[in-house]
Design brief:
The protein is mainly beta. 10% of the residues lie in helices and 33% in strands. It has three helices and 14 strands. The protein has helices spanning 6-10, 135-140, 191-200; strands spanning 17-18, 30-32, 40-44, 50-56, 59-67, 73-79, 82-90, 96-102, 105-112, 164-165, 170-172, 177-179, 185-188, 202-203. A nine-stranded antiparallel sheet has the order 1-9-8-7-6-5-4-3-2, with no helix packed on it. The longest helix has 10 residues, at 191-200. The two termini are 30 Å apart.
């Protein structure tokens, strides 16, 4: 398993990237604060999102910026209330996805991690079975013998008690909620993501592995 937030990248490669359904019909949820055909801010009353940009016939169209409640931002072209054309998704952890969109669906694009590493769908040689260095280790060199680097970020983040660091935030297994590193809500983990986090991600506590003298 790769030692970074490649789970997020995989959502853009091999799977279809879709714009959330709540973004596709903004007529019902947008409260316009000015006249059409102008650049202004519309408050999305029910979704908790916001939009700054151009409108046409009461729908988002032209260049604009759409901000989700999770602080993820889409900056780019809109048409008929949907992502359409060239656009970039900026994530709270500093990563981004640059893509070409058609009626709210990403048709092609590339994902760049917060440290500048670009994800490659083919010929991906980062953290494979033969080379498990972090990207910062490739850039800055390995630590001396006896010193370990636990994450791409060095020193690593302090994980809250009872939680996991899942690459783009902290996961609480009691609530099954993932928050960002500023402790703002990101999403609820489904069964598949929960299993992946528990089996692979760094946790806040230490466990004894191997032989136990009591057994």
């Amino acid at each position: 398993m790769k030692k970074r937030d490649t789970a997020q990248a995989s959502r853009f490669h091999g799977d279809v990237v879709t714009q959330p359904a709540c973004c596709r019909n903004q007529t019902a949820v947008a409260k316009l604060t000015s006249v059409f055909h102008c650049n202004f801010i519309a408050n999305m009353e029910f979704t908790g999102s916001s939009y700054t940009g151009a409108f046409k016939n009461g729908r988002m169209e032209g260049e604009g910026e759409y901000k989700f409640p999770t602080e993820t931002r889409y900056v780019g072209d809109m048409k008929d209330g949907m992502f359409h054309g060239k656009g970039v998704l900026y994530f709270p952890n500093g990563s981004k996805y640059e893509g070409t969109w058609e009626k709210g669906i990403s048709k092609q694009g590339k994902y760049t991690f917060s440290d500048g590493l670009e994800y490659q769908e083919k010929d991906w040689d980062f953290c494979d079975g033969y080379d498990r260095q972090f990207y910062t280790e490739r850039c800055n060199g390995l630590k001396p013998a006896g010193e370990s680097q636990l994450t791409d970020l060095d020193p690593p983040r302090v994980i809250p008690d009872g939680c996991y660091d899942c690459g783009d935030g902290f996961y609480d297994p009691n609530t099954r909620v993932i928050t960002d590193y500023e402790h703002q809500f990101l999403r609820n983990a489904d069964d598949y993501e929960r299993e992946w986090i528990v089996s692979t991600c760094r946790k806040s506590w230490d466990e004894i592995v191997g032989h136990s003298p009591d057994n």
